[in-house]
Amino acid sequence: MAIDLQMPVLVVDDYKTMIRIIRNLLKQLGFSDIDDAADGTEALAKMQQRKYGLVISDWNMEPMTGYELLKEVRSDENLMRTPFIMVTAESKTENVIAAKKAGVNNYIVKPFNAATLSAKINAVFGE
Amino acid sequence: MAKQSNAVPEAECASIAKREFPTDSNQSAQDISLAEVLHLAQSSVETLKEFLNRLDTTVGDDFHQIMEKISQTRDDMQLLNMPNNEVCPLTDAENELKMVVKATEDATNRIMSAAETIMTADPKDPAHYHLTVESKVMEIFEACSFQDITGQRINRVVETLDFVDYRIHKIAAFLGIETASERREFNEQAFMERLQRKDDLILHGPQEDGEGVDQNEIDNMF
Questions:
Q1: ipTM for the assembly
Q2: Across the interface, do B203 and A97 touch by the CB < 8 Å criterion?
Q3: Contact B207 A60 (CB under 8 A)
């Protein structure tokens, strides 16, 4: 599966600074259509309105966490195939296992760099 | 609980005396028999016994109340340890703040180094200069991500301090100690529910150095 740099990407994080950082890193990688949401609830609402090619989500958010968002996405027939990358400070083994079990495509621990983000996106799209 | 009087009421004494020694105007003090003296002594002992029993009960009640206060205070002190937390929350908070200081320092150094590299880059080679500036700007963006992690750490410290503040005010109020400041509103039930939610949703927050798994280990899991 080739990476379509025109595809809409949804960045979900409750820290606006982090959204800006990921936005800028994605722009640097060539992505141009980047949307954002402040938590899982807002992200889910946006995903039901628009088809995104990739979701990059934080874990620790209120009221709906990234983990809950992932489970919602994977249980929705229309959304279940959306590639989903978790970008989080939660780095315990049980978190990674739980996310993998819930169907996450890749997992990035904060703090991270542009190279890591690029490598994980490539891995998700099989490049 | 109202404190009981230790004294036997005067009216009660008079009543006992009247019952035990009815006044006979024809009988003088010298005519009192030994049996009557013994009877008087017995009555005195019984009266005294009743008084001592009351005294004992009152003192016992006081001690019981003190014991209850000590016990409840001890329980409240023990609750200063947050549920599901094996270490003292204040030690935990101290560690979090140390990590905040370290992360801030690291990020500042990274940002300054990147900025210094840009400042000293040679613009005579435009292509190389462009690449240098671009990569160093990316480093600055990456370094700025410290704000997310330090924000999460500081939130945990604030939550811990709120909990400790609440408990200390509760203990002070229980012991009748006036505190200088008004206690802020704190919903203990909501706090406990948040802790439960964190457990359910595996929300540990940022790990300390050496805790958790690194990116390479995660990559192996995928």
A1: 0.79
A2: no
A3: no
